[in-house]
Structures are given as C-alpha cells and as structure tokens.
Amino acid sequence: MSTDTAFYPVGTPGQPWGAAERAQWLARQKVQRSHAEEVVAKVDALRDRFDVSQYGELDYPGARYPLLAVRSPDWDDALPVMLVTGGIHGYETSGVQGALQFLDQRAADYADKCNLLVVPCVSPWGYERIQRWNALALDPNRSFVPNSPAPESAALMALVAPLKGRVLMHIDLHETTDTDESEFRPALAARDGKPFEPGEIPDGFYLVDDSENRQPAFQQAVIAEVEKVTHIAPADAHGQIIGSPVVAHGVIEYPLKALGLCASVSGARYTTTTEVYPDSPKATPQQCNDAQVAAVVGALDYALAHR
C-alpha cells in the first residue's frame, strides 16, 4: 500500500477529522469481549490476597467501567514502590492478562520486599472493543500530560500523583501487533489528515527505554529474563525497530515525557515499556502472557538489587 493510495474508511484524505468524523469512527466500534468477565472477575478473585480499590470510573455514552488498582496487602512506607500498568491500549491483550497472571502467580514472591501497585487494565473501553484509542478517538498513551484530555490517563495520573518520588520502578506492558500496520496507523494518519507511511512490524519482543533517563543495564536484565520465555525482535535492515534505532539487544528509546507516554507518569528511576508480538508464528497467547510476567519479574529483581 503506497501513501498515495492509502485509504481509511473515515474522513477525507488530507483533512483532519472533526466532530462528524469522530462520531462516524465511534459508530464503527463494537464490543467484542467482556471487561467484566475477563478482567473484573479476575481482579475480584484476588481480593482475599491483595488490597483492591476503584480509583475512578469511565463514563462514556452507553458504557461505564470501573478503574481498578491492586496493591500489596501490607503496604509499608519504608519499602520502595513498584508500579505495573497494563492495557493502556485496550487491544494489547497480554499487557492486561500478563499483569493479572503476575498478580496471581508471582506477586507474593515480593511480599516484604516492596510495595506493589498494579493497574491491569487502564483502558477498559478499548479492551472490550479491541481498540487502541478511547471513545474520544484519543490515544491514552500519548495523553499523560497536564490537564489530560483522556479520562483514562487523567485517572491514572491522579492515582500515582501521591506516590511521586517514591516509585523506584515502573513497567508498562504493551504489544506491537499486525493491526498496528493494518488498522491503527492508517487510522492515526486519517484522523490527523496526514499521509499514511507504511512501516514494518518486528517479529519478537522488545523494550522501550527513556532517552532522557537511560537505564541500559536495567533494560538488559529484563531482556535476559524474557529471553527465557520467547524470542527477542531483531533489528530491521536499517538497524531499527518501528523506525527507531536499536541501541542494544531488543531495546529502542523514546523521550517518554515529551511524548506523553504512560511510563513517564511516576518519575521512577527505572522505567521500561514492554512490546510483545502476539501475531508471531513462534509465540502462543500463553507465551505472550508469560513474557510479560517474565519482564515484570526481571524488572523487579533488578530494581530491588540496585536501589
């Protein structure tokens, strides 16, 4: 598909969307799975082992969702805080299910070592619709900015704000999928009235470090743990992954705060964004979840050893 012939079924090429186009896009979004069954029920099952709280509620026309956070049951202000977030992009399934699996299977290993704050699904509207954006056609992971226009992002920022300066590590769980290229990047180009520039989807797991706060040893510790579970994405012919230079094995960098990315929200010393590739013929859905769990474990172990 060339940029000249790229087509998206909403809007006029070269013209940014207005209210009518956003409404047309919204009408195309259909519920495809249940947040209540696949997320809320699993969180509820953890209530006997963790402190579960509702930190907000999404209230879109015809759709309301609780925003749920899970904390260590014996919170100790003398211990460092570790933040795990998933489902910033609702369609990135293993980010959500991996966070839930970590809570169920591995979180107890860190009792008395740190305070865990886990938000498994930041964007439940997007989770149900397998959608990157929220109902306002905004990307929550470009909206971690003052006075955020995205309610998902604003609610998470408010949750984390009292912990600023106390969060040692924040890992944000994501996926890069084939639909990034077939649906979500064309939609972004159409929404913003820009030409669609075709890209390449990497086959494998990779991480995004903060170019303003590089932690290369931390990133490699996470990669080493994930590599036990699934394969790491190689650089493309240009030495890049999704258009960014590969700075180390399986690692690229973004300026997190400047881009309004979730991993900038806490000001943690150690931050990383995972990117699992669920469409690989070499990875099963369970491997994708396991890779997210491995990433969280690798991140926690390194941060605790290098406080």
Automatic annotation (TrEMBL):
Record's superkingdom? Bacteria
Checking Gene3D superfamilies in the record gives:
Zn peptidases
Return the SUPFAM superfamilies for the record: Zn-dependent exopeptidases (SSF53187)
Family, as annotated: Belongs to the peptidase M14 family.
Protein name, entry field: M14 family metallocarboxypeptidase
Task: Give the Peptidase M14 domain ranges.
Answer: 32-307
